[in-house]
Each structure stands twice: as C-alpha cells, then as structure tokens.
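INFO  loader      accepted 1 record
INFO  loader      residues=137
INFO  predictor   begin
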Amino acid sequence: MTRTKTQISEKNMGSAVGSSHSSVPNGQIIDFERAELRRVPFQDSLYLWVRGSRPMSGCEIRLAPRIYNGRPDYWGIEVAAIASRRSDNDPGGAGDHGTDNWGFEQSVPLAGITGIRGITVIGANQIKRIEIDDKSF
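INFO  predictor   done
INFO  writer      dumping tokens
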C-alpha cells in the first residue's frame, strides 16, 4: 500500500484528537521552498509566511488550515494550488503576470489555527513542523 505525504503527516502530527480533513478539497497540495513565522509591524498577530513556485500559470495559492474536531498538538496547514477558471475570451488571469516566473509568497494569520505545540506546514514533497510557545505571541 502506498501512503501519500498527507497520510503520513496525519499519522505523525501527534494529534490528541481524531483525524483531520482538508479545507480545500478541490485543491492540489504543492511544494514550497520556505516557511517561517513573522510579525507584522504594529500588530500583535503572528503570521505564517510561505514562499515557493506555482505549478502552473494563473493558479490561486492558498494556505489552508486543516479542519479538526478539537485542538491537535500541531495544526496542519496545507500549501495548495487551485486552478483558476478562465472564460474562453480571457487572455490572462489575475495571477498570470509573466514576470515573476510563477513564484508566490502567501501569508495567513495564526490566530485560532495553532495547535497545542505549534503548526505543521504540509507541502507535496516536504513537511515542516514549527514549534510555537507563549513567547511567540
């Protein structure tokens, strides 16, 4: 039986609660190059920033928190691409700039989506666990 990275990550996330579900069922989990925590100046919120390359021009990138029944040790956040829907007369898309080599940088505030110990960023070829303590907020 072949297991995907998502299946492996669910098993190894150390969750004290039941299984999780993707919040982007129509999306495709993609890889990322860098994931880090940042604070935005003049705000008390902590953000997850993720950078990588789009798998195709014009797709929408989302950082999608998984859905849990309870609070896990590490909250899974998927890096997902969703194909944009273009009409036949649309020559391009909002995300199709041609000058950025299809790169992306996305962020999401972590308020309400952190596990007891931190978060797990889930990509197609890597999973990054980030510890978050009380000093992070």
